[in-house]
Amino acid sequence: MEHFDVAIIGGGPIGIACGLEAKKKGLTYVILEKGPIVNSLFNYPVNMQFFSSSERLEIDDVPFISKEAKPKRSEALEYYRRIATSNELNIKLFEKVESVSKTNQNFTIVSNKNKYNSQNVIVATGFYDLPNLLKVPGENLAKVSHYYKDPHFYAGQKLAVIGASNSAIDAALECWRKGSDVTLIIRGPEVGKRVKYWVRPDIINRIEEESIKVFYNSTVKEITENEILIDSPKGPIRLENDFVLALTGYMPNFNFLKKIGIELSKDDKKLPKYNPETMETNVEGIYLAGVICGGMETHKWFIENSRVHAPMIMANIVSKKKA
Ligand SMILES: Cc1cc2nc3c(=O)[nH]c(=O)nc-3n(C[C@H](O)[C@H](O)[C@H](O)COP(=O)(O)OP(=O)(O)OC[C@H]3O[C@@H](n4cnc5c(N)ncnc54)[C@H](O)[C@@H]3O)c2cc1C
């Protein structure tokens, strides 16, 4: 079994930042990623544009040059892939970590392909794998998706988009522009306040001119092959429907965190327990990095403000090694 100073679970932007920092500090490390490099970004909508400007997505001060101030998904893939390959990071792809167990001061990490031994573990698994489910009949029909990829697919179709934040609004606008008949279903009274400032006026105008239909203060009660049933302030409404994009957010894998011993707050936020100065959790030797730190508060952490986790963690690991 290979032995490392640190095993990093997740090869997203922050897992990669951790690998770079470990390398710089002369630590032995491995990054285990269940998909391709920056798998979450790979699965974002094909035309997605970040709300952050490119310099705020930089890791380890490597310049990120993009055509516009705010980069596109394809530019971010290029940037993080180049960082991983040109630094020859020790990253094992398509390798899903299934368990982490501790014996004395060592961890055994078991993936679907291999077993590793490590002094420390960093969990940088993000939140994009598990969608917040609607929990209504019909949600598991093939026409329903919690991930949006490409507007071409929905051209000429009656599309219901559920949600009021960036993902839902981007999808509604793009699909309408490619010829979908779009209805937005929003639980609250308005389009989300955090929608990108240059996109919000666009969707408001499309709603006001009735190009995109909207039901505010409404929830979906049932989805069938040809219809959706909406609970609206005007009472129940049935709409003809071909496809549903339920873009109501995502959540970290809490079962995985609990299984490896990390305590979560008892309230709805489910905040994992960690020391904000070192990022070490209640399990000595296990650290958290990236957006996973926010529990259900998935809007609190971004690449922008969580890239600092990498140097904080490595400084702590190095100081413990010296002690
Ligand atoms: C649509 C969208 C737009 C966003 N735009 C911005 C933006 O403009 N600016 C910004 O700063 N942030 C933005 N964010 C937030 C942030 O960029 C992302 O959440 C970012 O990917 C977080 O990086 P991360 O490394 O913490 O997690 P992730 O990128 O999610 O990486 C986690 C990785 O862990 C892997 N993984 C999970 N479980 C396992 C396992 N058991 N074994 C092995 N690997 C595993 C996943 O495959 C994934 O690659 C956006 C998020 C979304 C969803």
Automatic annotation (TrEMBL):
Query: Is Oxidoreductase given among the entry's keywords?
Result: yes
At the top level, the lineage of the source is: Bacteria
Q: Which InterPro entries match?
A: Bdr, FAD/NAD-bd_sf, Ferredoxin-NADP_redctase_2
- GO molecular function terms listed in the Swiss-Prot or TrEMBL record: thioredoxin-disulfide reductase (NADPH) activity
Q: Which Pfam families match?
A: Pyr_redox_3
Listed A to Z, the keywords are: Flavoprotein, Oxidoreductase
EC number of this enzyme: 1.8.1.9
Q: Which PANTHER family match?
A: THIOREDOXIN REDUCTASE 1-RELATED-RELATED (PTHR48105)
Q: What is this protein called?
A: Thioredoxin reductase (NADPH)
